[in-house]
Write a structure and sequence with these properties.
Number of strands: 39
Helix content: 10-25%
Distance between the termini: 46 Å
Structural class: alpha+beta
Strand order of the largest sheet: 7-6-5-4-3-2-1-8
Radius of gyration: 27 Å
Strand content: 25-35%
């Protein structure tokens, strides 16, 4: 979960734990791990009894029958945190909406309470006490209400002496059996077990103890291990719980979602029925991303067979949010009973292809574009794992349309977008019209008042011909969009294209920023069925940088992506809020100018072919102490122009220079050093562009 404790605080706590563990455990009435005595209410198994790491080949369903498909439901934390609007009325309201809006019928069943549901102190008998203001009827009354709706209730605690909130709500360390029995007596169906204030006790020991305590109640309770991925729980938690967090906390930003996605994707071999990689809850609807980005979020979580826990207050949700969360074809991908997590087929240049094997033999394929401009992403049915066939049925899971394809699975995917399709090697492919791919060649950057040349393509991917093909391109009001070549074709055979050149002019004085163009194609199938296809495109009105040398922190960027908080100008990254950075400092040297970022990060500038060099002093900012490992890269259009090796906080600032002559776009990229992104606060100090 997330809470007011910052990432910095979490890191400092981990570093100090080894020194303080013995004293803290003693003051809490517990023994240090080296001489582990039993907590008061139950015996603790010796450390040697912790389960051996589970190999990735484990695929059989667990005997308890819990969470045979990824859990679906709601958790309040992402929308309310510990605010007063998290209460009994909210929880009951969410349950009502699940039923009224059809979300229950779509598969959502758990209504989960996160931190702050209890009082800060236990009662005289050591029992947990629900907050009487938030939950005047108690947790059992809420559980009864939820159960009457045909739904299930979840609660939260931590595998430590306190939960994660600074108010200090009681954790379950040393009270596992008592707390588990309370949960069971209340009718709880799901437990999220966090990792804060763990006093340095071995993670596997702590999480094993709660597993045993839950089993001892005799009530089936789904067990969600929220260990943040620190001790690689995917290697050992399959024998303990039904799902385990693989990363730190998500936040409602593109950079955070993207970073977590990249950490979770490689873990596909460890997932299966009753054993799920958990990349954290959904942010769909919370307002920090666009609908395109939220569709990508939902698509990629589904293709990864991730738990789908809604994190927005559904009482305030927009129709577009419900449209995303209630897409039953996408949900069916997540809930496929085979239980396979999608695997990465390719990812070059931010063009991701992820394929998921389905129980019926079909493959779901996600074409995911992490970049800030539209890109063509392509694969084949064979590459996705399907057998040779004359043609295939291709089902678009967001358009809810079926087509035939000769084998190519391809699309021009909008910036930050995902095309999600399901491909079948069946005999009914000829009943569907041919799939066509709409595309754009040419730079997506224009200068106001100056004509730009763009070329659109309409390509038949089907085994059957597309007939009576026509294409149109429209822009914002006041823009001039004129075709300079043919916009029609009588027929397109497999892999043949209609290419149309266009002259696009933004009016003089058009402000810089992103603007939408709409590419539409119309055609007919061999049987005469009319088909239309639309591709929303984005072009950016940009201004070349001034002649001479400029600080990059003073120039407008095209796009800035950061894994933790926003990119900061002339300060370090700081934490998650805008403007919370400090003076840029590398190896004790302070810098007045530059950019403060957090891996994974990408900052793009329009240079319009008019610039020559980028220079900077780079390194891990001193605000992270001894933590942080990163690499720096400078890209000129699609070519890596310069890079460092892995840099650590112990290293002084490194000079980095790149020749970017002729490039239209320069991109500053920071990646993690191969050990995850925790504490990866990176500085582009004194970053300059010469033009």
């Amino acid at each position: 979960m997330r809470h007011p404790r910052t990432r910095t605080t979490r890191t400092l706590r981990r570093r100090a734990v080894g020194v303080l563990a013995a004293g803290l455990l003693s003051s809490a009435g517990l023994a240090a791990p080296a001489a582990a005595a039993a907590p008061a209410d139950q015996p603790v198994a010796p450390a040697a009894a912790a389960p051996a790491p589970a190999g990735p080949s484990r695929t059989s369903a667990p005997a308890d029958g819990l969470a045979l498909t990824p859990p679906m439901g709601f958790n309040n934390w992402n929308s309310t945190h510990c605010r007063a609007d998290f209460d009994e009325e909210m929880v009951k309201g969410i349950a009502d909406i699940f039923v009224a809006k059809g979300l229950k019928d779509a598969g959502y069943q758990y209504v989960n309470l996160d931190d702050c549901w209890a009082l800060p102190s236990r009662d005289a008998d050591g029992k947990l006490v629900p907050d009487p203001v938030r939950f005047p009827g108690g947790i059992k009354a809420v559980a009864d209400y939820v159960h009457e709706k045909g739904l299930k209730l979840g609660v939260y605690t931590s595998a430590g002496t306190k939960t994660c909130n600074p108010a200090g709500f009681p954790g379950a360390l040393g009270h596992e059996y008592s707390d588990a029995q309370q949960f069971a007596d209340w009718g709880v169906d799901y437990l999220k077990y966090d990792n804060c204030n763990n006093q340095g006790v071995d993670a596997k020991l702590r999480y094993t103890t709660m597993r045993d305590a839950l089993r001892a109640t005799g009530r089936p309770i789904v067990y969600s291990i929220c260990e943040w991925g620190q001790n690689k729980p995917w290697e050992w938690a399959g024998d303990l719980g039904q799902l385990w967090r693989t990363t730190g906390d998500i936040s409602d930003s593109w950079g955070s979602m993207l970073s977590i996605l990249k950490q979770n994707l490689p873990l596909a071999p460890y997932a299966g029925p009753g054993r799920w990689n958990d990349p954290d809850m959904l942010e769909v609807g919370n307002g920090g991303m666009t609908d395109t980005e939220y569709r990508s979020h939902f698509s990629m979580w589904s293709v990864m067979a991730a738990p789908l826990l809604i994190g927005t207050d559904l009482r305030k949700a927009s129709p577009s949010t419900f449209d995303i969360l209630d897409n039953k074809e996408v949900i069916a991908v997540d809930q496929d009973p085979l239980g396979k997590q999608g695997t990465v087929l390719s990812s070059e240049g931010g063009r991701w292809v992820v394929a998921k094997e389905m129980r019926d033999g079909s493959r779901t394929v996600a074409l995911f574009n992490e970049s800030g401009t539209a890109q063509r992403i392509t694969t084949t049915a064979r590459a996705a794992g399907l057998p040779d066939a004359p043609a295939y049925t291709l089902r678009d899971l967001w358009q809810h349309r079926s087509y035939n394809t000769a084998g190519t699975v391809s699309a021009t995917v909008p910036a930050h977008g995902t095309v999600l399709v399901r491909v079948f090697a069946d005999h009914d492919w000829a009943a569907h019209p041919p799939a066509v791919e709409l595309g754009l060649d040419g730079s997506p950057y224009v200068e106001a008042g100056t004509p730009a040349e763009l070329t659109t393509t309409v390509t038949d991917l089907g085994r059957t011909p597309a007939r009576q093909v026509s294409v149109t391109l429209t822009g914002p009001e006041g823009w001039t969009v004129t075709p300079t070549s043919a916009t029609r074709a009588a027929s397109l055979a497999t892999d043949r294209s209609l290419r149309t050149r266009w002259r696009v002019t933004a009016p003089s004085g058009t402000p810089t920023g992103s603007y939408g163009l709409t590419l539409k194609a119309a055609y007919r199938s061999p049987s005469g069925t009319p088909v239309d296809s639309t591709l929303p495109l984005t072009v950016s009105v940009a201004v070349p940088p001034p002649s001479g040398t400029s600080y990059l922190g003073d120039l407008p960027w095209l796009e800035a992506v950061n894994a933790w908080g926003p990119v900061e100008r002339d300060t370090s990254n700081g934490e998650s809020a805008a403007g919370d950075g400090r003076t840029l400092t590398l190896g004790g040297t302070a810098y007045a100018k530059g950019l403060g970022v957090h891996a994974d990060s990408s900052v793009a500038y329009y240079t319009g072919g008019a610039c020559e060099t980028v220079t900077a002093d780079v390194g891990v900012d001193d605000e992270k102490g001894a933590s942080g490992t990163v690499t720096f890269e400078i890209w000129a259009d699609g070519t890596k122009a310069a890079a460092t090796g892995v840099l650590t906080n112990a290293m002084p600032a490194q000079p980095l220079t790149a020749d970017v002559t002729g490039a239209r776009v320069v991109r500053l990229v920071v990646t993690d050093g191969g050990d995850g992104i925790d504490s990866d606060h990176a500085d582009w100090a004194d970053a300059r562009l010469s033009c």
